[in-house]
Amino acid sequence: MRIAILTSGGDAPGMNATIRAVVRTCIFEGIEVYGIMGGYEGLIDAKFEKLIEASVADIIQRGGTILSTTRSERFQTDEGFEKALNSLKIFEIDALIVLGGDGSLRGAKKLCEAGINVVGIPCSIDNDMGYTDYTIGFMTAVRTVTEAISNIRDTTEAHGRANVVEVMGRECGDIALFSGVSSGAESIIVPEFPMNINEIAEKALVGKNRGKRHHIIIMAEGCGSAFEFAKEFEKLTGIDTRVTVLGYIQRGGAPSIFDRILASEFGYHAVYFAKDKKSGALGSVKGKIIMESFEDVFNIKKKFRQDLLEILKTVSI
Ligand code: F6P
After folding, report:
1. Do 3 and 271 meet the contact criterion of CB atoms below 8 Å apart?
2. Is the dihedral of CA 133, 104, 68, 57 positive or negative?
3. Active site at which residues (predicted)?
4. Disulfide engineering: 141 pairs with which of 7, 77, 103, 250, CB 3.0-4.6 Å?
């Protein structure tokens, strides 16, 4: 049997740990395994490289992806898609394992509909897929944001200021929510709820009157301009306000322990699903690894952790 693996879309810490688990499980099962370089672009151009035990040595702790990644526009075209199918035929690939986020798994769905045995593994710092509790890379991004906020808090406290910290997440507020709880931020602004600037301003002023000298507001990128918000907030409260856009720092770095374990589980199980000719995307639900059909993956709506928001509102005052 021959399995191929590719990484696509935005990279996520833990992709390498997943590749390692896939390759080592394949070798254990006597399955030949090929890495496709550069995501769906590499699939179109047939950039296949045979992977052996040593190809994945010393990568469990590394961010990024040894297979490199792209956001492929050619794969969206009929011509590109046909070429991709052709590459799989030429290399006699029995199953393909795709690591990536929403867009990449949509590509996996399309290949599956064309008759390819495909297993998708959710890798994205955004945690924006409803069918799985966690995507690989999310907890690492939350750790990075949390660490950055402790540094920001020191200087914010020293000056008695407010700091609006913009985080990634596309249309999903999970990075803001989880890092809000773990960093003790006073307020979060997420795309899932309309923002109430008066409420945020009142909370900051009540804190200030109590003697509080730092006000951290985390704003998810899907909520507009952090600079505009900061200007408005400063006008309302009179508190000197700065902005920090964390940006790509959130996508790199050594994966957290949680992500390394999840990556190992997903990588290992992906090989056995592929071996059994089962197609779909893997997820982690209440601590269990599941496979969801590509149909349902995009039909299950993402639920916002309202319980965590209530906790934040209660304890971060
Ligand atoms: O999907 C991961 C992500 O980092 C989002 O949080 C962000 O909106 C986007 O990718 C940035 O994409 P790019 O790397 O193409 O700039």
Report:
1. yes
2. positive
3. 126
4. 250
- pLDDT class of 174 with cuts at 50, 70, 90: very high
- The CATH class of 140-251 is alpha beta
Round to whole Å and give the CA distance between 129 and 138: 11
Q: What 8-state DSSP symbol labels residue 136? A: B
Output the CA angle 308-314-315, nearest 5 degrees: 90
Question: In whole angstroms, how large is the CA radius of gyration of the chain?
Answer: 21
Locate the domains of the chain by residue range: 2-137+255-297, 140-251
* Mean pLDDT along residues 219-230: 97
pLDDT at 178: 98
**Residue 36 has which token pair?**
């496709």
| Residues involved in catalysis | 126
Distance CA 79, CA 202 (A): 56
> Of all protein residues, whose CA lies closest to atom 7 belonging to ligand 1?
170
Give the per-residue pLDDT at 177.
98
13 in ligand 1 pocket by Cβ < 6 Å? no
Q: Indicate the top mutation candidate among 73, 126, 144, 167 to test ligand 1's pocket, ranked by most ligand atoms within 8 A of CB.
A: 126
pLDDT, position 205 = 97
What is the structure's pLDDT at 56?
A: 98
What's the pLDDT band for 276 if we cut at 50, 70, 90? very high
32 bridge partner residues? 2
Strand, helix or coil for residue 120: strand
Alpha helices in 119-242 (DSSP H): 138-159, 174-183, 197-209, 226-237
Measured from the Cβ of residue 5, the count of other Cβ atoms closer than 10 Å reads 27
Instruction: Tell me if 7 CB under 6 Å of ligand 1.
Output: no
Residues, the chain, total?
A: 317
CATH 3.40.50.1260 fits domain 2-137+255-297: no
Per-residue pLDDT of 131-149, as tens digits, reads 999 999 999 999 999 999 9
- Consult the annotation and say whether 212 binds a ligand: yes
